[in-house]
Write a structure and sequence with these properties.
Structural class: mainly alpha
Strand content: under 5%
Oligomer: single chain
Number of helices: 4
Number of domains: 1
Shape: elongated
Mean pLDDT: 83
Number of strands: 0
Radius of gyration: 21 Å
Helix content: 55-70%
């Protein structure tokens, strides 16, 4: 791994250094975690945007199908259980591009 120097205001540096110490991580690990959080935030923003742009008829179809699956996935007591199937932002992008 190659290291480099970045220039930031000393107050910001001290703040980030204190945050890293609070988390028990190095300064570099803390910056990586912040970058990861930003990546995640951007993925969820893309997802929210894609959901907002979903045409009403497709959204209604999705809700109908979800309701049907929710009714099909229940335990012996009759309580519905939701099974979450994770997917990546790239698969959502492909799905949205295909529709």
């Amino acid at each position: 791994m190659t290291v480099t120097t970045i220039k930031v205001d000393t107050d910001l540096r001290d703040r980030l250094k204190a945050q890293a110490a609070d988390h028990g991580t190095t300064f570099g690990q803390h910056l990586a975690a912040l970058a990861d959080l930003d990546d995640r935030s951007r993925r969820f923003e893309r997802l929210r945007d894609q959901i907002r742009r979903t045409p009403p008829d497709e959204w209604a179809s999705y809700l109908d199908e979800t309701a049907a699956w929710d009714g099909a996935v229940s335990d012996a007591s009759g309580v519905s259980r939701v099974r979450v199937i994770p997917c990546s932002a790239s698969s959502l992008d492909r799905w949205h591009a295909a529709s």
